[in-house]
Design goal:
This protein is an alpha+beta fold. It is built from 4 helices and 12 strands, in the order βββββαββββαβββαα. A hairpin with an 8-residue loop joins strand 10 and strand 11. The chain binds GDP-alpha-D-glucose and magnesium ion (MG). Keywords: Cytoplasm, Hydrolase, Magnesium.
Length: 210
Amino acid sequence: MEKISDVTIQPCSSTPYIKPLRITYTQDGVKKIWDAMKVHDSVCVLLYNKSRDCFVFVRQFRPAVYINSVVTEKQADGTETVDSAKYPGTLGLSYECCAGIVDKDCSLVEIAKMEVLEECGYDVPLENIQKITSYKSGTGVSGAMDHLFCAEVTDVMKTGPGGGLKEEGELIDLIEIPLRESRKWLFDEAINKDGELILSVLWFYDHYGK
Ligand SMILES: Nc1nc(=O)c2ncn([C@@H]3O[C@H](COP(=O)(O)OP(=O)(O)O[C@H]4O[C@H](CO)[C@@H](O)[C@H](O)[C@H]4O)[C@@H](O)[C@H]3O)c2[nH]1
Ligand SMILES: [Mg+2]
């Protein structure tokens, strides 16, 4: 099983955000091919606002969520289109913890702090940010590391509007979910959520005995 050799990695095409690759290798004497992706590692921060006993999440339009929620139509020139009258943009809205890619030369917790300020407008002291865990995500396709944190904030720490970096085209809504309503909300399958949000909130219940 673990006898891997002759590994090669070849690019298909590449962007600053993702790099699709074809990997060939020999496993237990059998030649194999696997198509995968290099992506950035990421940090993800569960925000709990103590002043109002609520979680603070972000809501964004995620193109990847959208195109995987609709039926596409193949055009004569080979492109695919989506009938947006039939499939509204709401299908691509996703609720997530504040999160960002690890693309700066500073510590993970410092990146977490920056993302909280950029996306949610809270200036949270580093000592209020605690590590939950790190794990491999998307193991079939990317296998990047996700580093999960939890930050306790108060209304006093809210120094800006959040909403993401306008110069990078980010458009982010802040959504507050009261702790007392969160269990039902967490398992409402009609609401698109990232798995790291569910994991972080379950950790919160366990850690704080809620
Ligand atoms: N991906 C991408 N493709 C583009 O074509 C593309 N074009 C521009 N961009 C820019 O990249 C930046 C990405 O923003 P973040 O650093 O905040 O990262 P997120 O997209 O929020 O992703 C995080 O949160 C997700 C949900 O929890 C997790 O799944 C990820 O692992 C986790 O990293 C933005 O400035 C965006 O304008 C693209 N980004
Ligand atoms: Mg983000």
